[in-house]
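Interim report to the steering committee. The following record documents the input for Helix-turn-helix transcriptional regulator (131 residues).
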Amino acid sequence: METTTKPKHIGRNISRIRELRQMKQEALAQAIGVSQQTISTIENSETVDEDKLQQIAEALGVTAEVIKNFSEDAVLNIINNTFNTNDNGIAILKTEIYQPNFNPIDKIVELYERLLEAEKEKNVLLEQLKK
């Protein structure tokens, strides 16, 4: 039994990336200098001209390779591994709590002392200029 891989639908990938970027077809069309209808046609096409793909990728802030290799499964995996929902269905971002290895209060005091020292030096210079 031979399995063939289904070719990537480049237009659909463009559409999904554009939607993830919260960009409307009109905005993408304006960015690359075509009409909204042209973007619609491109998004319904399985293949896209390499030059046009490069322009679209640039407008979307990705590379052409990202568009070619875009996978919704990968995006869902990233979302599932990044977010967790509590019992109320509210998404909670899974992040590690940042624990600095220094006392922030000590840093504030240190900065205040440096600022105070700089002001003292400035006053001494002003007094010298005044004389």
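The longest strand covers residues 83-85. The committee is asked to note this result when reviewing the revised timeline.
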